[in-house]
Design brief:
- The protein is an all-alpha fold.
- The protein contains ten helices and two strands; from the N terminus they run H-H-E-H-H-H-H-E-H-H-H-H.
- Helix 1 runs antiparallel to helix 10 (211-231), helix 2 runs parallel beside helix 9 (180-205) and helix 3 (34-60) crosses helix 8.
Length: 233
């Protein structure tokens, strides 16, 4: 029962990113097909299976007390890192916007702003990449053929970007002896629900979920899960 509750919290926190990205796509009216949704859920589940299995193997060579301490510690550390990373990305994003505003002001004043433009471009590139942040802030970039529809091929990048973000959490949960099969299946179901529900809300109510909100909520939940697992192994 204890790990059942923990698995629910883990899968919920891991799929906050999926939900937030789907909301952003709904707002932009970029439709996510059923097969694309299934692919994202499948990759998320496979990532969970892999990371949990790795953690489970590590846990076999540790005593129960050490495994509990290490698994909880990994979860707490990843939660803290997730919050720090979210805040750092937000700081860089705000700095980029400030530089862009300053560059425009210089252009309006007739002053060469090449240096500011170059630095702003480098800063923007540093927050892009294969991560949910890039899809959350610029969802249209995933629609490579600009069809207004995320097909299976385009969903691959989204799926791996979302999954990579949660691998460390799965390892910590595996060390803490989470049920691999149950947690993997739950991740698949939660992912399907998160993407479908997020797209529906974004499309109907045009409500955005910022990257900092998703990152902070997910990080706090993982920290709470790590603390819970330490005291109630």
């Amino acid at each position: 029962m204890t790990h059942l509750f923990s698995a629910l919290i883990l899968c919920f926190s891991s799929n906050i990113d999926n939900f937030a990205v789907a909301v952003a796509y709904g707002v932009k009216d970029l439709r996510i097909g059923r097969l694309s949704n299934l692919l994202i859920a499948l990759v998320s589940a496979l990532g969970t299976l892999l990371s949990l299995s790795v953690g489970e193997v590590i846990g076999r060579y540790l005593s129960d007390q050490v495994a509990n301490f290490l698994g909880s510690g990994v979860l707490i550390a990843i939660g803290i890192w997730g919050i720090w990373d979210t805040m750092e990305r937000e700081r860089k994003r705000n700095l980029s916007k400030l530089r862009q505003t300053r560059s425009r002001s210089l252009v309006a004043a007739g002053i060469d702003s090449t240096e500011f433009v170059q630095s702003q471009t480098i800063e923007s590139a540093s927050i892009e990449g294969l991560s949910y942040e890039s899809f959350l802030e610029h969802p249209e970039k995933a629609d490579l053929d600009q069809s207004g529809y995320i097909d299976v091929r385009e969903a691959i990048a989204i799926a791996f970007g979302l999954t990579i973000n949660n691998l460390g959490t799965g390892v910590g949960a595996g060390i803490s002896d989470f049920n691999v099969s149950f947690t993997t299946g739950l991740t698949f179901v939660f992912s399907l629900m998160a993407v479908s529900g997020g797209y529906y809300l974004g499309d109907r109510f045009t409500t955005r979920i910022t990257g900092i909100s998703a990152g902070m909520i997910s990080g706090l939940m993982v920290i709470g899960l790590g603390i819970y697992e330490y005291f109630i192994p």
